[in-house]
Amino acid sequence: MESHKLVVRVEKLEAFLRFLSAAKTEIRFSSMPVESIVRRHGGGISFFSDIPDAASGENWAGAWNNAVEKRALDEGFFRRDVELLKGFGAGFGASDTDGQLSHCSLYADLTAAALNDAKEERNRKAKLYQMLGLFAGMAAAILLC
Amino acid sequence: MDEKNEDRFDSAAEGVCERIRKSLRGLPPDVKKQAQEIRLRVNRPVTVCCPQSVYFLKEGGGLGCIVGPGCVRADKNDLEESFRTLCGNSVYSHETEIKNGYVTLRGGHRAGICGTAVYQNGTVSGMRDISSINIRVAREIPGSADLLLNRLKDTLSGGLLLAGPPSSGKTTILRDIARQLASGVRGNIRKVAVVDERGEIAGSYQGIPQNDVGICCDVLDGYPKAEGILLAVRSLSPQYIVCDELGSEEETRAVEQSLNAGVSVIASIHAGNAEELLRRRQAAALLETGAFASAALLDGSAKPGKIVGIYRAGDLLAENRGSASAHRRGLSRGICGIA
Quick one: pLDDT at residue B323? Predict the structure, then answer.
């Protein structure tokens, strides 16, 4: 179970990294609004579906925060990732093109670092959990014999 | 139509931050139908401009003529939130508009933005510290150009310059002219190209015109007018080109080229009265191109859409040159022409 959580976290961080890369491209070449970027490229991340569209009139940054708070942990992100996601949402769409490209690059770097940690943790702990399972199985077998 | 105008006020109010929007939504339907502008200024009361007067917004949706304790005041955060909402939370996708001091909203409304200019390489590259926002409620009034078109009849094909002060209904009439020509309301369907630099005529949002500009109408959204006119002539083969607020030399040259391509131009220009129109160098230059057979003058914001005079371009130019014959025709009194 714990091993599965580590695997899901890696998948989610990879999906967010892909989203950031797509967002940079859309901002640079088509000036696509954030709402459309999220709709078009946010397929791998479930909490995006909780963010209402601009027509609803809701404060978008606030809606992003709420969606992250509500769904990100259940989805497989860890608490430390939630802060990263909230930080990104606070500045997403709030400045000119250069500002947004820098914003996306900064968060792509931070996400890449978090992804490396997540992969290391997964590799390290996955082996540990495997060994624990093996030993627990052996212990149970000895006891039963 | 009234219900539609009420909806239009609500859709314009969507651009305002949530706190103020609540009070705007609570305004009586009569006010919503008439309101022309919603104005937010930092640390000052929110105002709603109607044709007859300016009112102060009160908490819960009332209006007052004097500033009192119940008035809704916009603070810096309200303006910043409104600015982001106006930009659809994507400031970068409105960079060019912001440089020019406005943002076009869904529904064709236009928000004028004031703040501190940011310079880069000697030119304005952006804006910071937003200090006021003026949302102009776009009105779509089918039939608003009827009177004008009835009086112009066939002269329209010679081109029309629509002059008037701000909020006099120039854009509303231009939109209706485009609709009537492109839908065949008056005879044959005409091919119309709308060069909508500021997105006020068609009010396109994500490529879809929010206002009815007719069946056979092509919209060049966001194009600078000069470039848009030339592009339309080159690639869209229009019979009419409709655009808002002409003025620069580049635009005058583009109008001249469209004339040589056999396209009629219908455009607007700012001018309070005939004398002001004549005093404006750009107006005279436009009339001298020969692209406008007539010029119509609109009344002020108190009576939007009211035509006070229709003039022949030749008469106006003669007046401008101080021709005695023009004086004899009574042009200086502002009553002249084909009406």
Answer: 53
List chain A residues with CB under 8 Å of B128. none
How far is the alpha carbon of B19 from chain A, nearest alpha carbon, in Å?
11
Contact partners, residue B37, CB within 8 Å, separation at least 6: B47, B48, B49, B134, B135, B136, B137, B167
Backbone angles phi, psi at B122, to 5 degrees: 80, 0
| Interatomic CA distance for residues B224 and B39, integer angstroms | 27
B146-333 carries CATH number 3.40.50.300? yes
Q: For residue B93, which residues of chain A lie inside 8 Å, CB to CB?
A: 31-33
CA nearest B292: which of B322, B274, B268?
Answer: B268
Token pair for A12:
């989610």
Identify which has the larger pLDDT, B309 or B133. B133
Distance from CA of B264 to the nearest CA of A (A): 33
What is the tens place of the pLDDT at every residue in B24-41? 999 999 889 889 999 999
CATH code 3.40.50.300 region(s) in chain B:
146-333
Crossing angle, helix A34-41 and helix A2-30, to 10 degrees? 130
Spans of chain A below 50 pLDDT: none
**What integer best gives the mean pLDDT of chain B?**
86
Query: What would you report as the CA-atom Rg of chain A, rounded to the nearest whole angstrom?
Result: 19
Instruction: For chain A, list residues whose CB is within 8 angstroms of any CB belonging to chain B.
Output: 27, 31-36, 54-55, 57-61, 92-97, 99-100
CA–CA distance, B9 with B95 (Å, rounded to integer):
25
- For residue A57, the tally of other CB atoms under 10 A from its CB is 19
> Within 10 A of A100 (CB to CB), how many other CB atoms are there?
24
User: What's the distance, CA B111 to chain centroid?
Assistant: 12
pLDDT at res. B332: 43
Asked whether residue B339 carries a pLDDT value surpassing 80, the answer given is no
Contacts of B226 (CB under 8 A, 6+ apart): B248, B250, B251, B253, B254
Tell whether the model's pLDDT for residue B334 goes beyond 60: no
**How many Cβ atoms from other residues are within 10 Å of residue B87's Cβ?**
25
Residue B335 in this model has a pLDDT that exceeds 60? no
- pTM greater than 0.90: no
Contact B186/B149 with Cβ under 8 angstroms?
yes
pLDDT, position A14: 94
